[in-house]
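Quick start: what a row looks like.
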Amino acid sequence: MLLMDVKKELGEVLSNGLASTQIQEELHDDTSLLRDIGLDSVQLIELVVAIEQRFGVAVFDDDLSPDLFDKYDRLCNYILNKVNAR
């Protein structure tokens, strides 16, 4: 899987989970999912579950931090590393 594939799929996950098709247009490498998109704690939990299901990876509690969700690109790279480590 390539980084651009992860970005596309994660954009779809975010759009479907937030019921906003316009969110993909707002996603850039430096977009903060917390500040710019405004994900709350419940949405973050839903996002983690959706990532695990969509990409077939496990997101461990130790990995969860505000830094991981601070930048869209950082989360995409995290997912890509998890997928490639399988």
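That is the whole record. The helical segments are 3-18, 23-26, 41-55, 66-70, 72-85. The mean pLDDT is 90.
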